[in-house]
């Protein structure tokens, strides 16, 4: 019985954090994204919803160039993080695995880096 309880605990600990809209909005606002580089809190919430369904551990399918998109903002491995699977600019100086956990502070920092880039959200 203890082994079964431990198994369920491990499974629960490995599940993704799917944020509620208001919970995520509060977190993004506390971390300075409301109005950051002209993007409203609504813009960030809309993007997170359509990119990942508010899932902190979302990993997208392979893109045509072989890259993937990671985390709540679907940060791309070709430009912004290193997934050890192909060429990368690694503009956020982070492994892509940093964007697929329940702590989205690194995702937020990278998102700020992305929108401050001359290509902004196009990259």
Description:
- It is a single chain.
- The chain is mostly helical and about 120 residues long.
- The protein has four helices and two strands.
- It has a single domain, classed as Lysozyme.
- The protein has a two-stranded antiparallel sheet with strand order 1-2.
- A hairpin with a 4-residue loop joins strand 1 and strand 2 (about 75).
Number of helices: 4
In terms of DSSP E residues, the strand content is under 5%
CATH topology: Lysozyme
| Beta strand count | 2
Morphology: globular
What is the CATH class? Mainly Alpha
CATH architectural arrangement? Orthogonal Bundle
Question: H/E series, N to C?
Answer: HHHEEH
Mean pLDDT reading: 89
Strand order of the largest sheet: 1-2
Alpha carbon gap, first and last residue? 51 Å
Give start-end ranges of low-pLDDT stretches: 1-13
Going by helix content, strand content and strand pairing, the class is: mainly alpha
Sheet having the most strands: 2 strands, antiparallel
Number of domains: 1
């Amino acid at each position: 019985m203890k082994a079964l309880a431990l198994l369920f605990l491990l499974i629960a600990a490995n599940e993704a954090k799917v944020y509620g809209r208001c919970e995520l909005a509060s977190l993004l606002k506390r971390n300075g994204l409301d109005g950051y580089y002209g993007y409203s809190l609504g813009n960030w919430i809309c993007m997170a919803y359509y990119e990942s369904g508010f899932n902190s551990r979302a990993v997208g399918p392979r893109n045509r160039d072989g890259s993937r998109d990671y985390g709540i903002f679907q940060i791309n491995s070709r430009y912004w993080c290193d997934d050890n699977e192909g060429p990368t600019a690694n503009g956020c100086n982070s492994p892509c695995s940093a964007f697929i956990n329940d702590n989205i502070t690194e995702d937020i920092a990278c998102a700020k880096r992305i929108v401050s880039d001359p290509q902004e959200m196009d990259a």
